[in-house]
Amino acid sequence: MPWIDPWAPRIYRGELYDTELRLIVHFARQLKAKRILEIGTHRGRTALALAQNTKAQVYTLDIKKAPEDVIEKDLEFILPIERVGFIYREVDCPGITQLWGDSREFDFTPYYGKIGAVLVDGSHAYETVKHDLSEAAKMVKPGGIVFCHDYFSWAAGCRQAIDEFAEDREDAVLFLGTILVGVGDPMRGVE
Prior knowledge:
The protein is an alpha/beta fold. About 30% of the residues lie in helices and about 20% in strands. The protein has one domain (about 20-185): Vaccinia Virus protein VP39 (Rossmann fold), CATH 3.40.50.150. It is built from five helices and seven strands; from the N terminus they run H-E-H-E-H-E-E-H-E-H-E-E. A seven-stranded mixed β-sheet has the order 3-2-1-4-5-7-6, with helices on both faces. Helix 2 links the parallel strand 1 and strand 2 (about 55-60).
């Protein structure tokens, strides 16, 4: 496996670093996840990597337009609807299902207890991240994992919600050199 510099520039601002993407793919493969759900499609790079490198069906949720209460910092990451997921659409990847809606209002109940890995990487607003993590915990199967992205200072609300979610859990890990947190049974023993 080639060495990856975790601080190398990402392909596009707001996307996962290659190291983070490789970590998510690695754990999804280790879990033999049959279903993966991503909150925050953006350009579709993560969904495509997961679909091409695992045997999972990938569900990815994004909004069609910015809600009125969006935080200013998130505005630069909200794409026009025709650009959302364009990377995976260019290669016609059948393993990806695009879902539409605001995660705060989306009905996740059909996914409860059925998802091997969930990536929370949508809004950075405290209340929304808190909600998304709560829903992720309900969706993830026993033995599965919840990944939380953007654990850093400009997204103070995001970091606070992740801290509260991971509080008192022995299965929460901040991967060194990244802004990615993993929470779940596969994280036990990971240093």
